[in-house]
Amino acid sequence: MEKMVDQIHQTPAVVSPGRALFMSSLLAGVVLLVAVLPAEYGIDPTGVGRVLGLDALSDDAVEPVLSRQPLNLSDRAYRSDEIRLKLLPRQGVELKAVLVVGQAFVYQWRAEGGALHVDMHAEREGAAADEYTSYRIADGENTGAGDYRAAFNGAHGWYWENRGDTEVVLTLNVSGFYTELYMP
After folding, report:
1. pLDDT at site 87
2. Domain spans of the chain?
3. CA separation (Å) from 153 to 122, 123, 159, 173, 182?
4. Of 14, 114, 160, 173, whose CB has the highest number of CB atoms within 10 Å?
5. What's the alpha-carbon Rg for the chain, to the nearest Å?
6. Contact criterion met (CB below 8 Å) for 109 and 172
């Protein structure tokens, strides 16, 4: 019996080179289908990449900023407005711009004499009076700036409130493709 055990341990496992090539090619193909295509190219023929979360790694899963349309033509005239308002203690004011979906403006505002409460928000065209979307609410602000692109047709703008004890002068500069800037 000992001789038989020795012979078994001494006999090497032999795999032909053709069989080894076939097996490694098969394994490489499985890895390509299950991991590489979903992770690198967002192509997931088996669905396993989605289950494993590999499809989220592809460049196609995250839309780069540069792939957006670089040119937005407007049928509205470009305009620029500056508004200066005095806000007494405990006084608020709302300013809105009328935009259609995709249209945009650039804005900058500043408060002199104190800080303000600010709520940047928008109302869809035809919405109820208490139906709106707030984008930013903050207290104790002296300035704000940015650009804004309308996600829907309607009135888009700000509400500022002087919650302090002294008069504050608010200056708003807006430039872009809106039809009207008004105080509701």
Report:
1. 97
2. 17-63, 80-182
3. 9, 8, 19, 22, 16
4. 160
5. 32
6. yes
